[in-house]
Amino acid sequence: MSIDRGKLIVFEGGDGAGKGTCFEHVRKNLGDEGFVYTREPGGTDIGKDIRALLLEEEMSPETELLLFFADRAEHMKKKIEPALATGKHVLCDRFTLSTYAYQIAGRERPELEALYRELYAHIVAPHVEPHYIYLDVEPEVGLSRVVGEHGTTKTRFDTESVTFHTRVREAYHKELVCMSEDRYTIIDTGALGAEQAQEAALQVVKRIVEQ
Ligand code: TYD
C-alpha cells in the first residue's frame, strides 16, 4: 500500500509580522504526531552553520542568494523530502518566497531573478508544491516589534531600512498573486491582532491538511 505524501506548508512574512508566534501557536495545537516543524535558514546541521554566516556576516548579494539556496538544497534532501515521503506534513518557517522578496527585491538586484528561477526549478520545483501562509504587516509596525527578538542583537535583515522592507513586502504580494489561489493565504496581522492572527493561521493549516 502506498503512503500519501505529506504537505509542505510554509509560513512567510516580513520581519516582525508575527510569523514566529503564529508558527508556535500552530505547533502547540497540532503537536508533533504526523508533523515536522522546521525553518530556513538553519533546518539542518550544515544549515545551522550557513545560518550563522547569513545572519551575521556581510557578503555580496550573489553569495547571499547562493547560500540561502545551499541551505535549502540540504534542507530539501535531508529533512523535507524524507518527511513528506513518509506522509508527514512539514511546516516550515520561511522558504523560497523569502529569497525572492529579500535577495531580489529587498537588495534591488533584479538581474539575479533568472538565477533565482533557475535554482528554484532545480532544487525545489521537481519535489514540492508548497502552500504559503503569508503574515502581512506594514513594515513600520513590523520593524518596531523586532526589538529584542534575537536576544540583544538584531540580524542583518532586521536592521535594514523601512524602504528595504517595503520592497520586500511588495515583492511578496507580487509573487503571491501570481500563484493559484488554493496555494496561498494572506493573513493581515496588523488588522487582526496577535491572537486572532494565530487562530486564523491554525485554521488554515487544518484546512490544508484535511484537503
Ligand atoms: P530569523 O531570525 O529566522 O527571522 P524571522 O523570525 O524574521 O524569520 O532570520 C531569518 C532572516 O533571514 C530574516 O530576516 C529573513 C532572512 N531570509 C532571507 O533574506 N532570505 C531567505 O531566503 C530566508 C529563508 C530568510
Question: Can you describe what's shown?
Answer:
The chain has 211 residues and is an alpha/beta fold. The chain is 55% helix and 13% strand. The protein is built from 9 helices and 5 strands. A 5-stranded parallel β-sheet has the order 2-3-1-4-5, sandwiched between helices. The chain is globular. The two termini are 20 Å apart. The mean pLDDT is 94. Thymidine-5'-diphosphate is lined by residues 15, 19-20, 40-41, 55, 68, 93-94, 98-99, 102-103, 150, 155, 157.
Task: Please give the structural blueprint.
Layout: E1 8-13, H1 19-30, E2 35-39, H2 45-56, H3 61-85, E3 89-93, H4 96-106, H5 113-124, E4 131-136, H6 139-145, H7 162-176, E5 184-188, H8 189-192, H9 194-210
Parallel strand pairs: 1-3, 1-4, 2-3, 4-5
Helix pairs in contact: 1-9, 2-3, 3-4, 3-5, 4-5, 4-7
The protein binds thymidine-5'-diphosphate.
The site of thymidine-5'-diphosphate has 16 residues, from helix 1 and helix 4.
